[in-house]
């Protein structure tokens, strides 16, 4: 699905030098590169605070701890996402409230979100799934009306821009009260191990979170709150610092591959290609670099003639990597089943788990590879 080796070869010298630097100075934990990467990412995202941590799951958990959410508080998120999002809600003994997604964007369904709000609701966690920013105009409006926190799970959309109704733009992950991301190797900005970060423009929240990631310490050996140990190590920070200047060109390369796929697969009656229209008011329906609201962490088709599983196997037999993200709705997972949920409330997710298939998507895809992949799909489905 990804070609990390080829990408590494392009930036080998910078990455090798920065890793060597860490080895030479032995500053493995909280070395200068961590701070440098933090500053670089703050400038790139135009956000006041980036707090690096150990992975994207920790980032979500720490964000919720920082906001002071308490047992019994209801947190609304989507039924169609990676489990980490709901996992941390449950771990903190908050009450997850799963809602359906939008058929075209796979992001949170605004009507379902509105319906799910109760007096116990404290936060909304939109997930910018597959690299496309959720409808933040609507989410912010609802959050304001009901006095809710917005925690953006931006693990899949770092680098994406959101265009508001009024035309202004903001980077994904910096729009809500707090945003989180993952630097897992296959993410759009990936390190060579685990890593994550939390973003916020709120000084007080940033201060609280900086203590939480470090055992609840604000002064050495004085523990004011119950915290965790969650750090980005210096070697990973060095890799990320070397890769950050390339993030925009990485996102463009992904969009180019998506454009090729969309064009090649546009006219087949059993295929629904993805659109980039998270802000439906700026709805060009195109994959453009102007609003760049979609950074294609995944390129995900819907196969509507019942042949999705057969196509999955066929592509594997031709050595074309592909994956089903995600094969089970979260409300149906053993760990998250609950009598509160009603099948009738999840028509879109229940359909998507049967139709979606994600194709190879990375920064090194070449035209002959894309041609081979799309030809193989069209030959099979015809
Ligand atoms: C990858 C991912 C996470 C978790 O990130 P890790 O670094 O693997 O912990 C959380 N949410 C979403 C949507 C993800 O894709």
Automatic annotation (TrEMBL):
Domain of life: Bacteria
Entry-linked InterPro entries: DegT/StrS_aminotransferase, PyrdxlP-dep_Trfase, PyrdxlP-dep_Trfase_major, PyrdxlP-dep_Trfase_small
Keywords attached to this entry: Pyridoxal phosphate
Segments forming a coiled coil: none
Signal peptide from the UniProt entry: none
Keyword Transmembrane helix: no
Pfam families tied to this protein: DegT_DnrJ_EryC1
4Fe-4S in keyword set: no
Protein family per UniProt: Belongs to the DegT/DnrJ/EryC1 family.
Protein's name according to its UniProt entry: dTDP-4-amino-4,6-dideoxygalactose transaminase
């Amino acid at each position: 699905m990804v070609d990390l080796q080829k990408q590494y070869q392009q930036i080998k010298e910078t990455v090798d030098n920065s890793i060597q630097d860490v080895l030479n100075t032995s500053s493995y934990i909280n070395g200068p590169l961590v701070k440098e990467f933090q500053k670089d990412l703050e400038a790139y995202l135009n956000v006041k605070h980036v707090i690096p941590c150990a992975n994207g799951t920790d980032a979500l958990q720490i964000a919720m701890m920082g906001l002071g959410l308490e047992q019994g508080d209801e947190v609304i998120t989507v039924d169609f996402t990676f489990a980490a999002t709901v996992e941390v809600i449950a771990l903190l003994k908050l009450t997850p409230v799963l809602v359906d997604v939008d058929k075209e964007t796979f992001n949170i369904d605004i009507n379902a979100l509105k319906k799910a709000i109760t007096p116990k609701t404290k936060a909304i966690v939109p997930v910018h799934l597959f690299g496309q920013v959720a409808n933040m105009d609507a989410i912010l409006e609802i959050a304001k009306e009901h006095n809710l926190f917005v925690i953006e799970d931006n693990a899949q959309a770092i680098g994406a821009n959101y265009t508001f109704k009024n035309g202004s733009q903001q980077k994904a992950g910096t729009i809500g009260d707090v945003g989180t991301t993952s630097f897992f190797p296959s993410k759009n900005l990936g390190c060579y191990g685990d890593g994550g970060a939390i973003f916020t423009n709120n000084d007080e929240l940033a201060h609280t979170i900086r203590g939480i990631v470090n055992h609840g310490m604000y002064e050495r050996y004085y523990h004011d709150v119950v915290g965790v140990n969650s750090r980005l190590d210096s070697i990973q920070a060095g890799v990320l610092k070397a890769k950050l200047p390339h993030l925009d060109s990485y996102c463009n390369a992904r969009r180019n591959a998506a454009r090729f796929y969309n064009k090649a697969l546009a006219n087949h009656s059993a295929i629904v290609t993805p659109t980039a229209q998270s802000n439906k008011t700026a709805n060009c329906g195109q994959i453009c670099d102007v609003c760049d609201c979609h950074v294609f962490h995944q390129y995900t088709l819907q196969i509507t003639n019942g042949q999705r599983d057969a196509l999955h196997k066929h592509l594997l037999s031709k050595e074309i990597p592909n994956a089903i993200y995600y094969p089970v709705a979260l409300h149906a997972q053993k760990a998250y089943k609950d009598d509160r949920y009603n099948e009738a409330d999840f028509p879109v997710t229940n359909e998507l788990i049967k139709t979606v298939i994600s194709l190879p998507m990375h920064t090194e895809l070449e035209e002959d590879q894309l041609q081979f992949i799309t030809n193989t799909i069209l030959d099979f489905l015809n």
